Amino acid sequence: MRVAFDIHTLGQRATGNETYAEGLAREFGELAADDIDFIFYRISSEQAVGGRGRRLRPSASIPRLLIAAPWALWRDRIDIAHFQYFAPPVAPCPSVLTVHDLSYVRHPEFFSPAFAGRMRALMPAQVRSAAHIITVSEATRRDLIELYGLAAERITVVHNGVSSIWRPFDGSAIQCGLARLGIHRAFILATGNLCRRKNQAALVRVYSRLAQARKIDCDLVLAGKATDSANEILAEVRRSGLVDRVHVIGYVSQQNLLALYNAAIFSVYLSRYEGFGLPILESMACGTPCLTSNTSCMPEVAGDAALLVDPNDDESIYSGLSRMIEDDTLRAALRRAGFERASRFTWRRAALETMDVYRQVFHRGSGEGQREGRAISGG
After folding, report:
1. Are 76 and 4 contacting, i.e. CB atoms less than 8 angstroms apart?
2. Taken in order 273, 275, 279, 284, is the CA torsion positive or negative?
């Protein structure tokens, strides 16, 4: 069968969506499957993977999904097309749709009314028309069943992987990376887009309390792309009076992020809601213990290898930060457990499980076509 995999998010700083496309595309390009031929659909020449990329024009979302993608699927005789969130509403083949999370339903307050409204209006038709849905966590699978009434058998959980680039690094490379970022003191690290959902304002607020009580002597580094609600976090930094100790460094390259993970005393990921939470595993893979949330998918991802707190309760965050700062034995135990936990999540496993979904959809479609006495595209 011929499978089209959409990689238009590569290079777009689309965080989790980009990481997902990159991780799977790389493995698809390396795996040798006798029964699957991959074509990667991209929107720029820089996104080609293994020479299998086909550029879709125009690249704007609406004409790409309404015109360019359906035409390409027909032209390339595609049997199954795989997209994230949005597939062409009319296509010559079945679509597999990856839905990372339903944050726009669970927490519309984290987004602009226009974005949340658009997602709530469009996604029900998308998930109901897809031949099969992949989610990256059991938490999102439960949300799809509860909020959209989907049958459980239409949804497969395929956990994300952790790239091999996330690993312990040598001291000189770390120091070079920190120097590039202007960080010269010990620190704790929080990664993720600066926004309400990631909850950095609460982290800064509690960090300030600990600093004022002289219970913390390290700096705080916030690494992530600014969003529309980033001003709320920056205002919290100014109110704290600790602008010299709270470093808001914006979006950073993988190389610099690797240095940050390796140098941090521990990482903090206090998101209120996630579909997966890759920074938890990236931190663990680098040997850096993690403090994270006890909501949505985070316990599923972290297992017993991180310290969990309630992201909506400042006192719980205060207690968790205090323990991580004061308890060297706890951090050492989490470091050991984190290595083992992160090793379970690989993009090779994710790719193989995703390919199994393609096979199920393809054979199911072929069987239905035979029963109905009609041909299925490529079947």
Report:
1. yes
2. positive
Closest to 249 measured CA to CA, from 278, 275, 225: 225
**The CATH fold of domain 171-342:** Rossmann fold (3.40.50)
DSSP assignment of 271-337 equals -S--S--HHHHHHHHTT--EEEESSTTHHHHHTTSSEEE-TT-HHHHHHHHHHHHH-HHHHHHHHHH
Q: Which residues are CB-neighbours of 183 under 8 A, at least 6 positions away?
A: 219, 221, 247, 249, 260, 263
The model's confidence at residue 370, banded by pLDDT at 50, 70 and 90, is very low
Q: Which residues contact 189 (CB under 8 A, 6 or more apart)?
A: 221, 223, 260, 261, 264, 266, 267, 268, 283, 288
Assess whether pLDDT exceeds 70 at residue 374. no
**Tens digit of pLDDT for each residue in 24-49?**
999 998 897 889 999 999 887 665 66
Instruction: Give the CATH architecture of domain 2-161+346-372.
Output: 3-Layer(aba) Sandwich (3.40)
Token pair in block for residue 311: 């992201």
Task: Find, among 25, 79, 34, 77, the residue nearest to 53 by Cα.
Answer: 25
Which residue ranges make up each domain of the chain? Answer: 2-161+346-372, 171-342
Are domains 2-161+346-372 and 171-342 of this chain identical in fold? Answer: yes
CA distance 97 to 84: 6
Average pLDDT over residues 321-340: 98
Name the pLDDT band for 126 (thresholds 50, 70, 90).
Answer: very high
Whether residue 211 has pLDDT greater than 80: yes
Residue written as tokens 């005393």?
265
* Angstrom distances, CA of residue 84 to CA of 19, 320, 373: 12, 35, 32
- Is the Cα torsion angle 94, 296, 251, 182 positive or negative in sign? negative
| Residues in Cβ contact with 344 at an 8 Å cutoff, skipping those fewer than 6 apart | none
Question: Is the pLDDT reported for residue 357 higher than 90?
Answer: yes
Tokens representing residue 122 in the block = 């469009």
The whole-number pLDDT of residue 371 equals 39
Of 310, 302, 309, which Cα lies nearest the Cα of 337?
302
